[in-house]
Specification:
about 375 residues, mainly alpha, 12 helices
Length: about 375
């Protein structure tokens, strides 16, 4: 089956949606990873949370849209990935829910213990999710234990011979990830987890340096100068490994890889000069090019099989019908510019730096001793 123009278009659009999520929410996770490390007092804690406060929920829309786009444009890709990676994706979902609770509930009770509990939860899940996203994308690059076959009357999966796999699958034949949860964890995918971990951490440091002022911003820049070289080494090591061992498009993927490397180096040079704004833009571009690099490595497959290339799920096989993708394209033409425009507007409105010294002395929230007290109504 040959890939059509509209199928290629939606593969690119899904890449754009993931770029939007990882570049924008990446600094949100990075800020969460710093909550127990960077701030020295409650005012600095609140300043860091206030920096991501207007944006984190809007950033989550990008991942919801990316998942929805995969479901509608490439349903077989969605079915194979979400069923095979079910436990890992549930873990991501639980972590994201805990993060939302931490962001929303921290300020509800005026208690140091309450705030510390939610800061600890936020801190922990930010590190976990940052690793899990990298492991997931590394599995797309490396390939997973996918086989093609069907379920017999007893419910057992029966794989067909790789030589018998047709590019146009019979209705009864399915791509199934048979390896289980722990098959997703290999040295390559674990290193991929460290890639997103270090990228998000350095992205968060740059964001805190850019969005805050005073001593907090200075400490963030100093820490970034130490973290970013480690990020560059980890990213470079994984990228070279991926290019040499797992590229579907050969050395054509070297183009976005080189652009990502150049952007990280430029970001490091800017942070040494104290230009955190320019460094953040360069780092933003590096994450975007890293996503493009992954898409180059995977294309023209949706999911690669590490068992046999014949078992790989191609984009053409995974695709929805042309009319479905045509309707989606019309909706995307209307709504994607609206989302982009709103995102740009929101970041412009909340572009002012936050000074921890301007924060109120008394944190917000109810007195925890009076939470369960009620006024007595007298007649």
């Amino acid at each position: 089956m040959e890939l059509s123009f509209i199928q290629l278009l939606w593969f690119i659009l899904i890449c754009v949606l993931w770029i939007g999520y990882l570049t924008l929410e990446g600094f949100g996770f990075g800020t969460g990873m710093l909550l127990k490390i960077l701030p020295k007092n409650e005012k600095e804690h609140r300043s860091m949370l206030n920096a991501i406060g207007p944006h984190w929920d809007g950033n989550e829309v990008w991942v919801l849209t990316a998942g929805g786009a995969i479901f509608a444009a490439f349903p077989e890709w969605y079915a194979t990935m979400f069923s095979g990676m079910y436990l890992a994706l549930v873990l991501v979902l639980v972590c994201l829910i805990i993060r939302i609770c931490a962001l929303e509930w921290r300020r509800k009770i005026n208690s140091d213990g309450w705030r510390n509990f939610w800061d600890t939860c936020h801190f922990a899940v930010a590190w976990i999710v940052s690793i899990l996203w990298g492991v997931a994308f590394a599995n797309l690059v490396q390939g997973t234990k996918i086989e093609v076959g069907h379920y017999d009357v007893s419910g057992s999966f029966v794989a067909i011979d790789p030589s018998a796999v047709s590019t146009s699958l019979e209705a009864a034949e399915k791509h199934v990830l048979t390896g289980g949860f722990f098959s997703l964890l290999t040295p390559f995918t674990v290193l991929g987890g460290l890639v997103t971990l270090t990228l998000f951490l350095s992205h968060g440091l740059l964001f805190v340096a850019l969005k805050t002022s005073g001593d907090l911003s200075v400490r963030a820049k100093r820490m970034e100068a130490k973290v970013l070289p480690v990020t560059i080494l980890v990213v470079a090591g994984w990228a070279v490994w991926a290019l040499l061992a797992h590229s579907n498009t050969g050395f054509l993927a070297l183009i976005p890889m080189a652009l990502a490397a150049l952007s990280l180096i430029v970001a490091f040079l800017f942070i040494l000069k104290g230009s955190e704004g320019k460094a953040f833009i360069a780092h933003f571009a590096a994450i975007a090019m890293a996503v493009v690099f992954i898409w180059f490595l995977v294309f023209p497959d949706a999911m690669k099989s590490s068992i046999d290339p014949a078992y790989s799920l191609s984009l053409a096989q995974a695709s929805a019908t042309a009319p479905t993708q045509g309707i989606m394209t019309g909706a995307a033409v209307i709504f994607v510019p609206i989302v982009l425009g709103y995102t740009i507007w929101a970041y412009k409105v909340f572009s002012k730096r936050i000074n921890p010294d301007d924060a109120p002395e008394e944190p917000a929230g109810l007195d925890y001793k009076k939470v369960r007290e009620f006024d007595t109504v007298t007649s």
